[in-house]
Amino acid sequence: MNGRWGWLRRLWRLSTGRFGLIVVAVVLATAAVSLVWTPFDPQQVDIPNRWLPPGWPHLLGTDGSGRDILSLLMAGARTTVLVAVGAGIVATVIGIALAALGALTARWVRESVAVLVDILIAFPVLIIAMMISAVWGGSLAVVIWSVGIGFGVNIARVTRPELRRVLHSDFVLAGRAIGLTPTQNLVRHLLPNVAPVFIVQLSWGMAVAVLAEAGLSYLGVGAPVTEPSWGVLLAELQQFITVHPLSVLWPGLAITFTVLGLNLLGDGLREATDPTLSRRDRAARTHVPEVVA
């Protein structure tokens, strides 16, 4: 049990990991709670109570339609989690598949995959999303697939050389000697040893997914206006920033802290799960410098 959960204790000891873990946990908990409860109906229009300042019972105030901003933010957390997790799953599948094809197959396949990755990586993620939105219309599915494909290619490009490096390690050669298939070697030896690099890229991709959803929703090609979204809320409120600046602050802070938390959590997980970093840390703690007279 200690070995299994040791990475979590190391993550908590890191200030970056602790901050990222708390932020991500708060966002996940908010999204889960909003499924069954919000202070008010997020889409309830209450014209007499429009533009109320923060106070009771509207803790973060109301917007121009009288809707409770806290309820809108809680409901928007569901969209954020859906996009981040969905894009992360798509990026993981595409990235690992391309990296494995580019590292473990015949030479002509590896070179073909490398060329394909170089071509695809030339297209920015947001451009891909806007191109897909122009054809199939704006939706959360478009954001998830476009960001997932874009960062799956990034993951493949970074993970492929790491797989090639680990492929020639002694423990991989020993696995071959005892009869492990390439798939078994990939699962048991290769992927765990490239996990730190993969985790950083995945956390970055999920953070960009949050930004992409907010940005595309802001531009009107992301989440539909009927779907609670931090980007949609920001787009609706930004035109009143000079009159009611505090109302725009809340969705902006939600997006900022979520993206920052995901990035810092990825950095913390890299340090907590990287076996080479762990060995160096233990060596540094156990080394006692000599006292020179």
From TrEMBL:
Compartments in which it is found: Cell membrane
Alphabetical keyword list: Cell membrane, Membrane, Transmembrane, Transmembrane helix, Transport
SUPFAM superfamilies in the record: MetI-like
Residue ranges of domain ABC transmembrane type-1 in the record: 77-266
Pfam families linked to this entry: BPD_transp_1 (PF00528)
Membrane topology: Multi-pass membrane protein
InterPro entries: BP-dependent_transpt_permease, MetI-like, MetI-like_sf
Domain of life assignment: Bacteria
TM segment ranges: 21-40, 81-101, 113-136, 142-159, 198-221, 241-265
PANTHER family linked to this entry: OLIGOPEPTIDE TRANSPORT SYSTEM PERMEASE PROTEIN APPC (PTHR43386), PEPTIDE ABC TRANSPORTER PERMEASE PROTEIN (PTHR43386:SF25)
Family membership noted in the UniProt record: Belongs to the binding-protein-dependent transport system permease family.
Protein name according to UniProt: ABC transporter permease subunit
